[in-house]
Specification:
By secondary structure, this protein is of the alpha/beta class. The protein has 6 helices and 6 strands, in the order βαβαββαβαβαα. Strand 4, helix 3 and strand 5 form a beta-alpha-beta unit.
């Protein structure tokens, strides 16, 4: 199975930072995505960054990169996880929203099982943190028309790893144990999906 890790946004994406501008989502998610790929490779899995560049690569180009692998290997032999952090406001003030969320495209898709594996791993690696779930369709993931989820041919999920405009969530994200928890939950969830 080819595992593609997509790191959200790029250095030239406006906004996407904490209200004090010390945290930038593009930088954090690239570091986390690279660490996930390293750990998966160390464990013997075929993992790659979808976007190794620092600058923002268009969603259309990201989808085409993923779908190229799908056409080469078959869509059942590829999965994609896009790594983000969430925000409840416009980036100008601290907010109260907290928690971890995972999205898939609408309807019953191969991404649902991938997201469920990530939710199970998040529950293990983020004790004490809010895990945001939506069971309206029978599984915990939230559904959305995010372009990268809707247009990739393979199983795809997008994780929103806590809120970078909440001071408590951000403190955890930036801590050494917090960073490792975010890495570990993705590695565990992806391995469980691949081996499931």
């Amino acid at each position: 199975m080819k595992i593609l890790i997509d790191n959200g946004h790029g250095s030239n994406t406006p906004g996407k930072c904490s209200p004090d501008s010390r945290y930038h989502e593009w930088s954090y998610t690239r570091q986390i995505a690279a660490a996930i790929v390293r750990q998966l490779k160390y464990a013997g899995y075929d993992a790659d960054l979808l976007v190794p560049e620092d600058y923002d690569v268009s969603l259309r180009a990201r989808v085409e990169r993923a779908n190229t692998w799908c056409r080469q290997l078959g869509r059942r032999n590829v999965c994609l996880v896009s790594i983000h952090t969430n925000a409840a406001g416009n980036g100008k003030q601290w907010m109260n929203a907290r928690g971890w969320t995972c999205y898939t495209s609408r309807g019953q898709t191969a991404g649902d099982h991938l997201a469920t594996c990530l939710y199970e791993a998040a529950s293990l690696h983020l004790p004490g943190h809010k895990i945001r779930k939506d069971y309206s369709d029978g599984d915990p993931d939230w559904e959305s028309d995010f372009y990268i989820l809707k247009n990739t041919l393979c199983a795809s999920a997008l994780s929103e790893n806590l809120f970078h405009d909440n001071p408590q969530d951000l403190a955890f994200l930036e801590s050494v144990p917090g960073r490792q928890a975010i890495i570990d939950l993705h590695v565990r969830g992806i391995i469980d999906y691949v081996n499931g």
